Records
---
Amino acid sequence: MAADPTPNPHATAAQVEAAFADPKLANVLYHDWEAGTYDEKWSISYDERCIDYAVGRFKSVAGDQGWPYEHAMELGSGTGFFLLNLMQGGVIKKGSVTDLSPGMVEVALRNAKGLGLDVDGRVADAERIPYDDNSFDLVIGHAVLHHIPDIPAAFREIQRVLKPGGRFVFAGEPTKVGDRYARKLGQATWWLTTNVTKLAALRDWRRPQEELDESSRAAALEAVVDIHTFDPAELETQAREAGMVEVKAVTEEFAAALFGWPVRTFEAAVPREKLGFGWGMFAYKTWQRLTWLDERLLRKVLPRELFYNVLISGRKPN
C-alpha cells in the first residue's frame, strides 16, 4: 500500500491558480491550509456541547437503534468532528477517518489520540474509497457531500464499502435555498464588520490587514470547493439509484441559520481575543433556542426545502 501524501499548508501561487480549474486540488489546498486552525474557526470541540450536537444530528435522521456500531468510517472527516464526538457519545466503537486533505487526516488522528479513541485513517478520494467491499457497519460524514464532484459515484462507493445491512448518515449539507440566504448574510456581515472596524474608535476590533487578506484568499478558494447545494428529494433519489434502501432526508436550521451565519462571519472578522466566554455562551444559547423553535414549530409549517441543512440516511440491502 502506497504511503499517503504529506500535508501542504503553504500552497504556491501557481498551485492556487491551478486549483481554480480543479475542484479536487482546490479541496486539498484549501483544507490543508485550514487544518491547523479549523477547530478554532468553527468552534469545534470534543466535549459535551459538540457530543450532544453530533449525537442529536445522528438521531434526528437515523434514530437510536443498533448502537454502538462496531466500525464506522467518516468520509471527508476534516479534523474528526463528527466521528470522534459520535464515538464519545456511544454511537460507534471503532473509527476510520478519511479525507482528500492530508492535513485534515493528520489533525483528525492527533485529535483521536488525544481523546484515547480507537481510530485509524487514510487520505482518500470519496469517489474511489481505498477500502475493501463490505468493510464498515456505518459510513458517516458532516458537511462533505457538497465538496464531492461526482455524488452518484460517491454513493456507489459508500454502498460498496458498507456491509450488508450497513447504514450511512450524512449531515450538515447546504440546501439550494438555504445556501443562497446564508451566503448573502455572510457577505453582508463581512463587508459591514470590516468597514465599521476601520473607524478610529473601533480600530482595536479590526484584525490585521494581512489576516483579512488571507481570509479573503481562503474565501475565494472556498467558493471553488463548495461545489453543490441540494434539493432534499434529489439527494434521496441519488442514494436510491446507488442501491440504498430506507432512504430518508430531513432538514433543519432556518431561524438558527439566519442567526448563525452572521455570528460565524462576525467571529471570523474580528480578533478572537475580543470575544470572551460571555459572547460564546450568548451565541451558543441563542442558537440552541432558535434550533428548538425550528424543530418544535417551524419544521411543522415550513417546506423542508427552506431550511439550511439537509441530513440523509439509508441502508445497504441485506
---
Amino acid sequence: MGFQCVDCVTEGARTTRQARTVEGATHASTGRRLLVVPVLIVVNLALFALTAYLGGGVTDRDVFQSDVTQEGALVPYFVALGEWWRLVTSGFLHLGVTHIGLNMASLYILGRDLEPVLGRARFLAVYLLSLLGGSASVYLFEEVVSLTAGASGAIYGLMGSLLVVLLRRRLNATPVLAIIAINVFLSFSLPNISILGHLGGIAVGAAVTAALVYAPRGPQRARWQAGSVVAFAVALVVLTVVRTAVLVG
C-alpha cells in the first residue's frame, strides 16, 4: 500500500516568494481574490473529516477503514473492473492528519501564486488534469493491487505549472527547480510514497500550463487554450481505456 504526500514544499515556501511578483502584476489587473484554492481545501478537509468520522479516528488505519476510502481510493484492479471514479476521487482522499496537512499547506502556498496568474478556470483545469495525470500514471504502471490516495499528483502538477509560469515570464526559476528536485528525491527515498503519481502529476501540470501560457495571442487565444485542455483530457482518458483493455483482455 502506498500513498501520495508532499514532504518538503512547505519547507521551501520562502524560496517561492519571488512568484509574488508575478501574482502582484496579474492580480492588480484582475482584482480577483482567491476562490478555487480555498474551495479545494474545504472539499479536501470535509472529505477527510467524513472519512475520519466513519473510520472512528484520524490515523491512517482509521481513515483507511472508512467506506468512503474503501470505495474511493485508487486501486488499479478495481478501476479495470469498471470503477473509473477512483481515478478522480482518490485525489481528494487522505490517509492521516500529516498527509492532508502537508498537502493542503502545499496547495495554499502554490495556489495563492498560480490562481491569480492563470485565472480561476485555467487554474482549476491545471489542478484537475494534474490530478488525473497522477492517477493515470499509477493506473498505467503501478501494481494492480496497490492503493493510492492523496492530492499530491495535483500538487506536483502545480509545482510544474509554477515553474513554467516563471520561465515564461523570464523570472528566476532556480528556487522552484530546487524544491522540485528535493521533492522528487524524497519521493524515491521515503517509503509509502506514490512516485508514479508525483511524476505523472508534474509532467501533466507543466505540459498543460505550457499550452496555456504559450498559446498564440489574438482573438483565437481562448479557443486554443480550451482546445488544449480538452486534448489533454481526452489523451488521459484514451490511455486509461487502453490500459483497461490490456488488464481485462
---
Amino acid sequence: MNMDQLKRQAAARALEEVRDGMQLGLGTGSTAKHFVELLGERVAAGLKVIGVPTSETTRADAERCGVPLTTLDEIDHLDITVDGADEIDPELNLIKGGGGALLREKIVAAASDRMIVIADDTKWVPTLGRFPLPVEVIPFGLGATRRAIEKAFAECGVSGQMAVRKAKDGHVFVTDGGHWIVDAQLGRIADPGSLAKALSAIPGVVEHGLFIGLASSAVLAGGKGIRVIERRKPKGD
C-alpha cells in the first residue's frame, strides 16, 4: 500500500466520527484533501453537514466536491476539525504549517470541540523538531523579528538555521493572510509548550506551527492498519 492510500485510509476512519448536522473544520494538505473528497461523497449521498475551510485551496476542493461551506463569522463553534500534521508526538502536540495554512488551521482548531489529526504513521515522532518549524511573520521589521525568534530559541534551549520560505517560482511564499513564513531547522524541541509561549509573545510573529493541546485524537495509518491515539487528559479535567 502506497503513502497516498494510507492517507486515504486515515481520512476514511476520521469520517466515521462525522454525524448528520455537524459543523466541521476542513483542514489543509494532502491527507486533509482525501477527507474533503470522501466527505463530498457522503454529502452527495444525503449527509447534511457544513464546513469551514482552513485555506483557499481547501475552499476550492470543498466547492468542487459539493461540500456546503460557511465561516466562523456566521457560526459560533465547530463540532470537529479534521486536519493533517507534519509531526505528532506522544502527547498529541503537533508541528503544522508545511502547507502554509497554519494561522487559519489554528483558528479553526481552537474554535472546535474536537480536533482529529489524520496522518500516515511516518508523522509519529518521539519528540517534535525533525520537521522544520514554520513561524508566520509580518514582513515589516523582519530582521528584528528574526533576532527576537533567535533569542526565544536560545532561552528555550533550541537552535537552528532559519530561512524565509520560497514558493516554487523562487519568490517569497506568501500565505493566504498576506504574511511570510520563516522555517526553522531545530532538530529536537524538548519543551514545545514553552517554545510556543515564547514565540507567541514576539511582536511580528503572527502565529507558529506548534499546536499544543489542540488535538483530541490522532488517526494513524500504517502497514499494520489503523491506530487511533486519544490525548491523555491532565488530572482534574
---
Amino acid sequence: MKRTLPLIFALFALSTAQADEVQVAVAANFTGPMQVISALFERDTGHKTSLAFGATGKFYAQINNGAPFEVLLAADDETPAKLVKEGNAVAGTPFTYAIGTLVLWSADPKRVDNKGDILKKGGFKHLAIANPKAAPYGAAAMQTMSKLGVVDQLKPLFVQGENISQTHQFISTGAAELGFVAYSQVIKNGQIGSGSGWIVPGSFYDPIRQDAVILAKGKDKPAAVALMNYLKGDKAKAVIKSFGYELR
C-alpha cells in the first residue's frame, strides 16, 4: 500500500497539471445543448469550460476587439471563415457542428397553425425576430417572410431581440404573441414541447450551418483542441441531435 500511494499521488498531480480551461463563445441558439455537452466534456476530460452565450455578430466584434475567447461556436459558417481570413482564428480548424432549424412559435397552444398561414392572415400585434444583422436565425426569419411575400405588412409588428434567446423570451413572456426561434429552444422529446409552432421548411431559407473554430488565442491550447475533438464525437452528436439539429 505504501508503494502504491506515491504512484496514485503522482498520477493525480499529472492529470491536474494537464487539466486546462477553455474560454468559449457560444451562439445563443446552442445554449441548451452546450450546457449538456460542457458537463460531459468536463467529466470525461478533466478540462474546464467557461461559456458565454450571445449573438454571433456581437461575438465577432468582441473577438476583433481582443476578447479573450479561445473557441467560437457560431450560428453560421461565414463568421468563422471570416475570422480565419483576418488572422483571428486558426486555419484548418472550422467545421460544421450542427445545422439549425427555424420555427415560427407561440406560447399560445392555439395560435400558430402547422403551415404558418397565420403570417398571411394576421390577427396579432407583435412578431418577434432576432436581429438579422447579428443573428443568423433572424436572417433566416427575414428570408422566410420574403419568400411568403409578407415582409412589408409584418415589418411594423416586429419586436427585435438582440439574439435568439431574447427573442424566445419575448414570446414566452407574452411581449410578442409569436415569433421566429430556433427549434432547439422549444423541442421536447422530438417535437415542439409547449405552445404551438410551424417548423419552417428548409427550402425557405439558406441552410443554417453552424461552424466551430479555434480562435487565435486558443492556438495550441490543450482544452481548446480537446473541446473541438469532443464536439465531433458520438456523445456530443447524440446531444446535438436530441435538440433538433441536423448533422452534416
